[in-house]
Amino acid sequence: MNQKFNFAVLLVIILISGCLKEKCEITSSQCDKQDTKSGGALEGCSFKQLRYNYTIRDYYLNSDECACNFKDETKYRYELVECCNDTDCSFDEKCGDNKCERIKCGDCQYIGEHKCIKNECCEDKDCRTDYECKNNVCKEKPITPIIEVVDNIIILKNKKDVTYAYDDCEAVDKIAYSTPKIMKYIYSRFDDIFDYAIIVTNFDTCVALLQENIKNEIKGIGLDIFDKSKIYGGADKLKGIVRMGSTNGLALTSKFTFLHEFGHNWGIFINSGLKDEHNHWDNLAFLDSCDAMSASGGQFILKEDGSYFLKQCADEWGYSELMLYLMGLVSKEEISNNDYHLLEGVDENDPFKGYNIKSTYSINNIIRLNGERIPTPNESKKNFKVAFILVTDKDGASSKEIKKLHQIMENYINWFSEATHNRANIDFSIG
Ligand SMILES: [Zn+2]
C-alpha cells in the first residue's frame, strides 16, 4: 500500500470517527433536566409533576436544534407551581389545582385561616335570652324602657327586669329590686335633672325602706367625698335614693318615715356623741325639737326640777336645728349659743324617773371634730328636684293607686317644707 492511499484512508476514518464523536447523543436523564424550568431541582412542593411526551433527538455539531423533541414516549417534567397546600397561600385564599384562590364565604361566615368560619350569631335567635346579635356577636340587650308619666309619677313597668330573688329575705316572695337598674331605665328616658329619687313599688319587696347615698360633695357632715353614680347610669346630679316601701305599706304615708329616710341623705354621719352607730341621733340625745332622725322616737323636754322626760312626737316631726345645719339650711352662727345634750337615765331601770345631762355639745364642738359644713347656707342647694318612681309589672298602676300616690307626693312636698321651716323644698315636676 502506498503512503498516499494510506493517508487518505486514515483521513476518511478520522473524519468519520470525528463526525461520530461530535454527534449529539443526549441521554434521557439529560432531557429530563432540560425540560425542567428550574434546571432540575425537584425538591419542595412548589413543583408540579406533569406528564409529558417527548423523544430524544440526535444532536449534531453546529445545529441549533439540539433538544429533546416530542414523540409518543411518556416522560415527565416538572413545573414551578403557585401552591401545593393552603398554607402556601395568604390567609384568605386556599390552594386549588395548584393555584391560590380567594375564598368566598357565606352570609354568616368570615374568612379565618384558609377557611370559612361561622360567626357567633347571625340573628337574635342565635343568642341566649336577653342577648341580641350585633355585628355577628351576641351582646346583652339594652334595657327597654317601658316608662309612663302620670301626674309627675314616673311609672316603670319593667318589674321583672329590675327585680331579683333575694334568698336571705324573710318576706314570702323574696323579691328585691335593683336601684342601679331602675335608675338606668330612668336615665334612658330623662335628662340628668334629679337630685334625689324616691322609689315605691306596687308589690311587696324585701328591704323596702332604705336610703342609699350615691354621691357626696358636702364637707363637714361626716361623710366622705365620693361618687358611685356610674353604676346608677352615670348621672352627675343624683345624690341619693330613698325606698319608701309599697303602695299598700303604712310607711309610705308616714310623715316620720318619709322625713327620716329622706333625712338620711345628709345624716347622721358626723363624729359626735350625739349620734348612734346607725346614723341616727342617739336615743338619749336632747335636741331642740322632734327630729325625725332621732332614735328616741320622741323629744326630751326639760322639767322644772331640772331633769328631762321623753315626750312622744306625732305630727310635730320635722328636723332639729342641728339637722338643718347638716342640710346646709342653718348657719353655725344661728345656733352658736345653743347647747345639745346626751342624757342618761336617773334610774337605769325606771325610765319614768327621768333623765339628767351626761355631756353637752355645741355646734362649735361638732365643727371642731368634723370641720365646717361646706357649702354654707349661703351657697347650699335648697330646691331639690326629686324623681318619684313607681315600679310595677307590665300592667302599670291602677287609677286608684295613682290618685293615692299623687296625694302622698303633695304630703311629701308640704312635710319637707314644714320640716325645714320653708328653707328648702322638693319638686317632683318633670320637664
Ligand atoms: Zn334610719
Strand and helix layout:
Layout: H1 3-22, H2 28-34, E1 47-56, E2 68-80, E3 93-96, E4 99-102, E5 109-111, E6 116-118, E7 131-134, E8 137-140, E9 147-150, E10 153-156, H3 159-162, E11 163-165, E12 175-177, H4 179-189, E13 196-201, E14 209-213, E15 215-216, E16 226-227, E17 240-246, H5 255-263, E18 285-286, E19 298-302, E20 308-312, H6 321-326, E21 340-345, E22 355-361, H7 363-370, E23 383-391, H8 399-419, E24 425-427
Parallel strand pairs: 10-23, 13-17, 13-23, 23-24
Antiparallel strand pairs: 1-2, 3-4, 5-6, 7-8, 9-10, 11-12, 14-17, 15-16, 18-21, 19-20, 21-22
Bound molecules: zinc ion.
Write a structural description.
The protein is 20% helix and 27% strand. The chain has 431 residues and is α+β, with helices and mostly antiparallel strands. The chain folds into three domains: 28-81, no CATH class; 86-140, no CATH class; 147-427, no CATH class. Strands 9, 10, 13, 14, 17, 23 and 24 form a seven-stranded mixed beta sheet that branches. Helix 8 links the parallel strand 23 and strand 24 (425-427). The structure holds zinc ion (ZN). Zinc ion binds next to loops.
